[in-house]
Fold:
Amino acid sequence: MGEWTDKELGLHLPIARRDFIGGVAAGAALATAPKALAQGAPSTAAPTSDYPPALTGLRGQYPGSFEAAHMARDGDFNGELQAEDSGEHYDLVIVGGGISGLSAAYFYRQALGDDRKILILDNHDDFGGHAKRNEFTYEGRTILAYGGTMSIESPFPYSFTSKKLLADLGVDLTSYHRYETKAYEGLGSATFFDKEHFLADKLVTGTGSKPWPQFFAEAPLTPAVRADLTRIYTEKVNYLPDLTPEARAEYLRHISYQDYLLKHAKMLPESLPFFLGHYFRNNKRVDTLPAWEAALGGRMPGFAAMELPKQITAEAQHFHWPDGNATVARLLVSRLIPGAFPSDKLDQESVVLAPARYAALDNPANSTRLRLRSMVIRAEHIGKPARQTEKAVRVVYVKDGKRVSVTGANVIMACFNMVIPFIVPDLPQAQKEALHYASKVPMQYTNVLVKNWRPWAKLGVKSIGAPNGYHIGASLDYPVDIGGYKSAHTPDEPVVIHMVRNPNQPGLPRKEQNRIGRAQMLAEEYPAIEREIRLQLQRMLGGAGFNAARDIAGITVNRWPHGYAYTYDTLGDPDVPDEQRPHVIGRQTFGRIAIANADAAGSAFTNTAIDMGERAVQECLISRGLI
Ligand SMILES: Cc1cc2nc3c(=O)[nH]c(=O)nc-3n(C[C@H](O)[C@H](O)[C@H](O)COP(=O)(O)OP(=O)(O)OC[C@H]3O[C@@H](n4cnc5c(N)ncnc54)[C@H](O)[C@@H]3O)c2cc1C
Structure:
């Protein structure tokens, strides 16, 4: 790892020059945001740009945005909490400006009218939660990327509620095929074998398209591992011959894919590093993936000759905007807040290049206000709320280092489940325990703007898997032209390389792996992350002419220590009816405080975040006898 010098990787220049040559020099300050927190009243770091999507460096849950929540977790705000009373009162205060919180505001206005006063509080400098937009500028051209939520997609169909909301926002889910270009036609996949886990550094093209014997023949593997991997990918053997299809499915649900490969397919333990390059829904890995999930869809080897019960599958439609589902958040804000966008009638196309006016988000003249850089540290009832009580809940948040309070007739917690017990201390103990059950998945979406993608075209690939790599893979960003936005059409044009990282600790239970991965992420400083990014790209693509020092024009690291909502699996979670699941127990209304957010659905998707927003609104209305 050490053989590449800083100069060769382009790390010798000052950050303001190396990341932003030809681009916007907006965000370097965030790479080293202040950790100092004044007298228990922390300040979220003030970024240097008034247009957050253009900030580069360390984004996502960036330093300075979350410390107050950790202080709440550590008990720093226990007991009576002093705060400056702003005198502001709202019909509804929403904690969290992600898709769930924004949808809740939308549904509340639909139910009670646009003039109802709503305040949305979010700790970040940008709205959308995980659905974040990244923008680069290179040689006068705006290049968009998604910092989190990638697409409209889901393993189950959208509910009527979420589909209707998208339709109201001017989105036609059947129309996506109109926008995807053919720029990457003919490009396939490759796998990067690293010398730390295989015999040498080598990029082998044709993953999944070349015949497996040829693919593995080119890979730097020992003869025994090569033969073993070739066998598992080609032989047609039923490794569980004595079970009926139903019994097989049941068995596979309770054994990990790793154990299945070792115990039943008799693979060599030395072959397993190859499988560490695969990640599955909700970032399970070979050791935490139920073998049943590996068998579904026929993507993984080992099940070719096995009869299994038929599954009914019905997926949601697919739609990808250049900034991912940040577009959904932007459309919602355009409907909720007059002046936040040039028009309140934007649709799936006209929204793409529409500039957001951040200064208009918290305008006292509007009935709905969105207040950023505001971390809520307490939501508590004021006395015992009767149905008629107006000022039912006091909400305290920290902004610019100051604690401020507002009141609301209702509050919706559209944040993270695990933070709620710390900021709503009066919740019943059983509910607190249920809210603590889940452990969100740590994730990093790294966007690297490169000046061209000639090395990729030369190799004939658009995506690279990197078993055991710092990032588990890298791919050319989606080729989508929509609403006047043009993606790269030729290899000579700049493009974003999207890289995915999911730190974990193989061998431990999944939730434990998530916790360790999260701690690792929070401990990493930006310079170390940047070195890993440059080094990995150099090692993977250097042979095809890539030069990190010359070719990289900008980097945005979207770090999500609290990423996907936790979803249950058949290995680590008790098999109980839904009503006994922690997310259902945890999301009960508490007086005037309702709980939205994707965690409350036990599902990490946009549609469920929307559905939870709608459910929470209904509960608010019921709590006040309004329906
Ligand atoms: C990297 C990534 C990729 C994904 N890709 C997809 C995809 O392709 N398709 C899909 O359907 N889904 C995807 N998901 C899941 C999807 O993004 C989420 O399910 C959904 O956006 C969650 O919305 P939410 O509003 O519930 O939560 P969030 O988006 O997390 O929003 C909650 C907001 O509340 C804020 N908050 C938390 N505590 C406080 C507090 N105390 N005070 C103030 N604010 C607070 C948070 O910081 C955050 O901004 C992805 C998620 C991640 C992390």
